[in-house]
Amino acid sequence: MDNDLIIRQELEKDYPAVKKLVKAAFADELHSDHKEHELVEKLRQTDAFVPPLSLVAVLEKKIVGYILLSEITVGESNFTSLAMAPVAVLPEFQNQGIGSLLIREAHEKAKDLGYTSVILLGHKDYYPKFGYKPLGDFGIQLPFDVPQEYAMGLELVSNALNGISGRVHYPPAFFD
């Protein structure tokens, strides 16, 4: 990937560009409701939004990628974890490693902020390379019906999900 790529925290002035980017990134995605850009806007208005975990990838002053990790809880104990949604790269910049860089940077920042795990719904062949495992391995379930191989979790800290089980609780923004 180009050495001129910068990953930084999203700023309020980036919101319009991020909206366009997310919309474009998911436009041709079959397994999408094509409302990911609306989810981002709704999450920014919630307590689940963690500004340092809303990241953009910038290349030659153009925002070409975006990732958001927001707070969720798991099980009756309300264990705090993070949801990764969405990860988006402009179509003309896809398959160049930008998404991978965003994911790795988001993981590092989350760990630095004291978070210990990330949960996602995503491509079963893509996320395992980052260490994601089926949620069922942890005894955790999503609150909606999806094929199990698409529901995954990652421990940012060893054994972070030991003893954690139950249903994931997303902010209402995920269901609006």
Overview of the molecule:
By secondary structure, this protein is of the alpha+beta class. It has a single domain, classed as Gcn5-related N-acetyltransferase (GNAT) (Aminopeptidase). The protein is built from three helices and nine strands. Strands 1, 2, 3, 4, 5, 6, 7, 8 and 9 form a nine-stranded mixed β-sheet that branches. A hairpin with a 4-residue loop joins strand 3 (62-74) and strand 4. It is globular and about 45 Å long. The relative contact order is 0.17. The model has no long low-confidence stretch (mean pLDDT 94).
Topology:
Layout: E1 6-9, H1 15-26, H2 36-43, E2 49-59, E3 62-74, E4 79-89, H3 98-112, E5 117-121, E6 133-134, E7 140-141, E8 151-155, E9 166-169
Parallel strand pairs: 4-5, 7-9
Antiparallel strand pairs: 1-2, 2-3, 3-4, 3-9, 5-8, 6-8
Question: What is the mean pLDDT?
Answer: 94
**CATH class wording:** Alpha Beta
The number of helical segments is 3
Counting DSSP E segments of at least 2 residues, the number of strands comes to 9
Give the name of the CATH architecture.
3-Layer(aba) Sandwich
The value of Rg in angstroms is: 15 Å
User: Largest sheet at a glance?
Assistant: 9 strands, mixed
Strand content range: 25-35%
The tally of structural domains comes to 1
Shape: globular
Q: Per CATH, what is the topology?
A: Aminopeptidase
Low-confidence stretches: none
Structural class by sheet pairing and helices = alpha+beta
Q: Superfamily at the CATH H level?
A: Gcn5-related N-acetyltransferase (GNAT)
SSE sequence, one letter per element: EHHEEEHEEEEE
Percent in helix:
10-25%
Q: In whole angstroms, how far apart are the ends?
A: 36 Å
